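Handout, section B. The chain below has 233 residues.
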Amino acid sequence: MNQTLTHVKALAFDADDTLWDCQSYFEKVEQEYCELLSDYAKPREISAALFETETANMPELGYGSKAFTLSLIENAVKISNGRVGGDTVKAIVELGRSLLRLPATPLEGVAQTLETLRNRRRYRMAVFTKGELLDQENKLQRSGLKRYFDVVSIVSDKTPESYRRLCHELDVAPSQLCMVGNSLKSDIAPALGVGACAVYVPFHVTWKHEQIAPFEHERMRAIERFAELTDVV
C-alpha cells in the first residue's frame, strides 16, 4: 500500500458518514416512522418492509432523502393496507424533509485533516458522493468544507464508469487516485476495481444497503480515525 501511495496524485472523499454524520439521522427518522405506524405493525416488520420498498425503488428513484421519503410514504400505505390517514402522511413527509436540513457538521478531525492535506499541495482533491444533487450540494455548503476541493462530483451511483469519469475530471490515471470512504461496497470495492487505491474509514453505523462482508486488498488501507489519513498519504 505504501508503495502505491507514492504514485497518488488525487484524493477523492466520500461525503455522507465520511465527512459528516448522515446515517444516524436516517436511523432516527426510521425509529420515529415506526412509532407513527405502530398501530399497523411491529417496528421490526415495518423496517423490513421499508428495506424491501427502498430496494425496489432504487432503480427509478436512486439514493437520497427525497427518494427515501417517497419510500416511507409508499411503505406506509402498504403496511396499513391503505388505511393510513392524511395526518400521518403529513407527519411522514415532515420526517423526510427533516433529513434535508441535517447539519452536516464535519466529523472529528475532518476539517483539520483536509486543511493539512490541502496545504501540502501534492494532490488534487475531490468530493465524490452519490445521492440527490441539490441535497448533497446543500450539505457540502453547510459543512463549510467546499473550499478544500478542486472537484465536486455528485453521481446517481458509484459505478466503475463513474470512477473513470472522476479520474478524467481530476486529470489522473486510475492508478493515481486514492478513494477515501466509509463504505466497502460503494467507496472501496469499485475504486479498487478500476485500479485505484483506497483508504477505508469505518463509521459507527452502516446503512443496510451498504453492508457487505469485510475483505482485504493490497491497495487498501484501513484506518480508525479520519486524522490518521495524513500518516497514510
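Note. The first helix runs from residue 2 to 5. Compare this with the example in section A.
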